[in-house]
Amino acid sequence: MNRRKLNVEELNRLSIEEFQSADKIPLTVVLDNVRSRNNIGSVFRTGDAFRVEEIVLCGITSVPPNAEIHKTALGAENSVKWTYYNETLSAVRQLKKAGSIVFAVEQTENSLSLENIRLDKSKRYAVVLGHEVHGVQQAVVDECDHCIEIPQFGTKHSLNVSVAAGIVIWDFFKALI
After folding, report:
1. How many domains are there within the chain?
2. Which of 12, 24, 87, 130 could form an SS bridge with 136, CB 3.0 to 4.6 Å?
């Protein structure tokens, strides 16, 4: 069995221009006051890998260009469309007005377990991920259509925000591709 690692040229990746014109999954990722630029960069890189439509950066979330974001995004901050809002609540309201079904990724009363979410390929979606310590703001949770909880079976009650984003984006990608 041949297990030679492929080099970058053999991976046939899209150029930034090809990526920008390629079909995307109908998913917007909203970062609600995410403070770590490394986490922000990781979300950009995952967004690029699974062709999310847009990343919305809100509140204290840093925006590109930024050396720390670039360190983990590795250029994905140049391929994935992004916008900035001062207030996450405004972003969520705008997404809903534009027809997106908005999910907060948060542990709440009556949250839906990620493995039970059923998505319709004809609809648009957004997921909101929150601050590393405080999570998604309660007012934002209240404005969202639903809340998603990622099942966890260990002693900890939360995941790193970029890890949570990766799990949720992958799950949405599989359902919407």
Report:
1. 1
2. 130
